[in-house]
Amino acid sequence: MLFTLVATLSLLLPQTQQSAARTIAIDETLAAQAKLKVGDRVTLLARPAAEDFAVMTATPSGYNPGVAPAETVIVAAIMRRSADPSQIARADLLVRMHLDQLQQISGYGDRVDRFAVATRPGANVGRLLDDINGVAFGFRAYRSRDIAVETSRTFQVVSRFHRAIGVITIVASSVFLLCIMVLKVEERRRDIAALRLMGISRSSVVKTIIVEAALVSILGSVLGVGLGWAASLLVNWYYQGIYRTPLQFSIVTPSIVAASVALSLLLGALAGVLASVRLARTPPLVLLGR
Amino acid sequence: MLAVLGVAIAAAMLLDMVMLATGMRESFRQLLLSRGFDIRLAPKGTLPFDTDATIPSVGAITTVLRSNPDIREISPVLGSSIHISVGARDVSASVLGIDPSVQGDYELVSGQDALTPESMVANDSLIRRLGARLGDTLTVATGYDPQTRSYSGQRQLVLTGRVRFIYGATEQSSAAVRRETLEEMSGDQQRDRASLFMIRVRQGADPDRVREWIESYIPTVSAISVATAIAQVDQRLSYFRQLALILGSVSLLVGFLLVTTLVTVSVNERSGEIAVMRAIGVSRNHVVQQIVAEGVAISIIGALIGLGLGLATAKYLNGILSTFPGLPMAIDFFLFQPVAAWSALGLLTASGIAAGIYPAWRAASLPISETLRREAIA
């Protein structure tokens, strides 16, 4: 069972006081920004030190030194953040400390923000929730996944936006592919006329063009997949650096590759059919401009 | 026709991406300036209402601010939450403690502003949830202890006005009371504190100089001018600008390739005609101009068709992004500005000119006699 209390703290640096200090862990962004390393001593306060100064400056007679005592601690570990999407757009700096220590510094008393409960494998979570909610007084139990759904609304919106952009891009790419393929087949009108004049049947001409268009589509797809994979690596490298997170922003999966190749093949074949049927129906001499 | 449709779709995408890249910032700027406040003061290191932190010593800070002749108006705002008992139900909402004479957070839609300590104004969402009418007396509390199920800071307030919160999210239920009323209800914890100060500067004064002055005199606050707020929002939403840049570039490239292919095919088909034109004395320059003009014409026709298509897709995409939790209703990610349409048209025209250059060069460098002989044999 985990007890979690989240509070905003301020750090005062550096400290030279030598005593039996407790330890904290800080995230690597904070370590980099405050130039801290393992073993350094820092003082934690529950509110900005500048506030006292301001209160003194603005209202000398009303100065209240506050209730929360400062505490000097040792940086025992520097941690890397987990891949949490809800944190990427925020510039929060994280400190992990012992629960009682935070309760004392923040003046929060014997309170926590939430309990995290791990269940045994095979436990009936629904019944457990009902039991807790039946006896609990003053709080409510939720499934982790329900909370995840509720707290990930921002990402659901982004996800819907991505899907919409994806659909628009696919439509635009489809029209582009169709245009290019139709124009390329149109360019071959004289070759087609020659083939027809040599006595090759319409269906053979149509099949040849469709096969050729499909081959061009597959070749284009292979190049496109390579380009997409390289772009994906670039996107991940860039955004992981920007947001200092191990999150994967772009993932190329086999299903995405398969869908892209299939769509490209379909469009290529369709363009081949559209262009070749029209050209095959046109008399060869007209195709030659006679 | 298919090719023009392709250019139109590329143009629509380009317009959308130009709108996305510029609209968000402009929309946010318009929102910040909508009530004429140039500077916001938030607790040190935070953005307005980004955390529960508050600024102490409102009276003393106001005195310091008034000493600067460039500051024209100061509006301290205290944010909190309230619980309103409606029968057996408890309706919670966010509340702002304001001074109605200088507030810049809402517009009065109907009724009266919160002119007395016992009055309260609320938005449609809260009024709907309460099932209340203007003139109703409500039991409002600022604290609720779930363990004892008891309220604290309770007070009877009269709902006097219906308002629209300018910075409020679509689904947010909000109310506003006088700041001293909210302070009294919240007890010592919030006494003489504010979540935010909104400041109007004197006409002609430089808001950034005033901002620097405030930060040097009042270390408990982060002073945020419209420019710094936009920079911070830019940083948080940089993803959308980068996406707009990438997709806009791809759209432009697609349009360019389409026009190039189209004009090249057209030139190949008309190589005989072009050779005849050259043979009867039409200059190279004239041929080049004609072919480049063809590329530009295709781009402009595509762009005109794409304008309507782009506006429709922008409306659809904006509808999706406007459901962002906590996003103010007035923020548009895709904001149509004539400059966006002109930029997209300008980029497409430039790409049309560039697209015509290669086929024009090919046409201008056709060997006349050889082309005519080949055409004659064919």
Could you explain how this protein is built, in words?
The complex is a heterodimer of chains A (290) and B (378). Helix content of chain A is 56%, strand content 11%. Chain A has 290 residues and is an alpha+beta fold. Chain A folds into two domains: 2-116, no CATH class; 153-287, no CATH class. Mean pLDDT of chain A is 77; it is low at 1-8 and 50-67. Chain B contains eleven helices and twelve strands. Chain B folds into two domains: 2-29 and 236-377, no CATH class; 45-219, no CATH class. In chain B, a hairpin with a 4-residue loop joins strand 7 (143-145) and strand 8. In chain B, the strands form two sheets. Chain B has a six-stranded mixed beta barrel with strand order 2-3-10-5-9-6. Helix content of chain B is 51%, strand content 21%. Classes of the chains: A alpha+beta (290), B alpha+beta (378). At the A-B interface, helix 2 and helix 6 of A face helix 1, helix 2, helix 7 and helix 9 of B.
Query: Biggest sheet of chain A: strands, sense, closure?
Result: 5 strands, mixed
| Count of helical regions of chain B | 11
Shape of chain A: elongated
List the secondary-structure elements of chain A in sequence, H or E: EEEHEHEEHEHHHHHHH
For the residues shown, what is the average pLDDT of chain A?
77
Q: Low-confidence stretches of chain A at least 5 residues in length (pLDDT < 50)?
A: 1-8, 50-67
The class by helix and strand makeup of chain A works out as alpha+beta
Radius of gyration of chain A: 33 Å
| Number of separate strands of chain B | 12
- Major beta sheet, strand line-up of chain A: 2-4-5-3-6
Radius of gyration of chain B: 31 Å
The share of residues in extended strands of chain B comes to: 15-25%
